[in-house]
Write a structure and sequence with these properties.
The structure holds two protein chains of two kinds. Helices cover 43% and strands 15% of the residues of chain A. Chain A is α/β, with parallel strands linked by helices. Chain A has one domain: Rossmann fold. The two termini of chain A are 28 Å apart. Chain B has a single domain, classed as Hypothetical protein YojF (Protein Yojf, Chain: A, Distorted Sandwich). Chain B starts with a strand and ends in a 6-residue tail after the last strand. The mean pLDDT of chain B is 96.
């Protein structure tokens, strides 16, 4: 489907690379249309497990590596407004709930987005993803119905299709596949395993990677009131 | 970080004994373990910048090693330590990296608090 023009897109994810896996192509397409995109990245992925063996990083040096990767990925996606929100990886769900809602509300008040891209609470697997999606949904729910931004929500839990059905918003991002690959490659500490050229990739893996590179899907989060 | 050399690591553990130190202790299977295998029971623990003082620190065994710290009133230990380094800020960073290079356990000791 063709992307509609947006006033401003706000992307809210907890970890550097969440945006690249789920939305790099969509973001690049919006930027190519001239739509402003703000990315609020809540943590620096400090708890990333991949340090290599032999190691290329330590638990203490990883955040700075991922900060640089995030900046490089944003360049690949054309994001000019990157906000690093200073929370710590794997602790987002333990922050005060109201503080989290306020963090999102403040961003919405400042940016006035017409669309927010985040995780779908209940279908986002990682506790930080869940907490991020919950905060965004609650912040938007508190806005009067007529002025709420739309929420494109990413769900990938194993039961997502069973519970929510096929995602209604499907973006063909094959025209910017190179940019998506560049964004993923920028997150090298996280993606080297999948970006390296290999002869030994199974058909299943190849299909999965192809779909990551070419298609981005979202659910439209809807409110009852 | 390099692979554990017992005598070198033991010397570093000795150098932090009987001082007030901050520790980072972490065990993890990753947040996706139960996503990839729904029968996997995912558990882990994390503590950062707890201030302790140990009287005896020991690294034991073949790799993956165990490292234990005996305190006046209790113990800290980590199992599965494979790598260590004394970083540029003088902090002793120990980690257990699995066969694919993923961190499974970390134990770190510093005289100053770790960053947030």
């Amino acid at each position: 489907m063709t992307l509609q023009p947006e006033r401003h897109v706000l992307v809210v994810f907890p970890h550097p690379d969440d945006e690249a896996f789920s939305s790099a192509g969509t973001i690049r397409l919006y930027r190519n249309m001239g739509v402003p995109v703000t990315y609020a990245c809540l943590t620096l992925g400090e708890m990333g497990r991949n340090l290599g063996n032999p190691p290329f990083a330590t638990r203490e040096s990883l955040p700075e590596i991922r900060r640089k990767e995030l900046i490089a990925a944003c360049e690949a996606m054309g994001i000019e407004d990157l906000r690093m929100m200073g929370l710590r990886d794997k602790t987002v769900e333990f922050e005060d709930d109201e503080k989290m809602v306020k963090l999102v509300t403040d961003l919405i008040d400042e940016i006035n987005p017409s669309l927010i891209i985040t995780f779908y609470p209940g279908f986002a697997v990682h506790p930080d993803h869940e907490a991020t999606g919950r905060a965004v949904v609650e912040a938007v729910r508190r806005i009067p119905k007529e002025s709420r931004p739309r929420i494109y929500a990413v769900g990938f839990a194993n039961n997502t299709m069973t519970k929510l059905g096929v995602p209604p918003i499907v973006h063909d991002v094959s025209s910017v596949r190179k940019d998506k690959e560049a964004a993923l490659r920028a997150h090298n500490s996280q993606t080297a395993w999948m970006m390296q050229e290999t002869q030994h990739r199974s058909e299943e893996e190849t299909t999965k990677l192809d779909s990551w590179f070419n298609v981005e899907s979202y659910y439209l989060y809807t409110f009852e009131d | 970080m390099k692979e554990v050399n017992i005598s070198e690591l033991q010397g570093l553990l000795n150098s932090f004994a009987n001082k007030d130190v901050f520790i980072h202790l972490e065990t993890t299977n990753g947040s996706y373990a139960s996503h990839y295998d729904e029968k996997f029971f995912n558990a882990g623990a994390f503590i950062r910048n707890a201030k302790i003082r140990y009287e005896l620190g020991k690294v034991v065994g073949e790799s993956p090693h165990r490292v234990g710290l005996k305190m006046e009133h209790g113990w800290v230990y980590a199992q599965g330590i494979t790598h260590f380094t004394l970083d540029e800020q003088g902090r002793l960073l120990m980690a257990g990296l699995d066969y694919s290079g993923k961190l499974a356990v970390a134990l770190e000791i510093s005289e100053t608090p770790f960053t947030y």
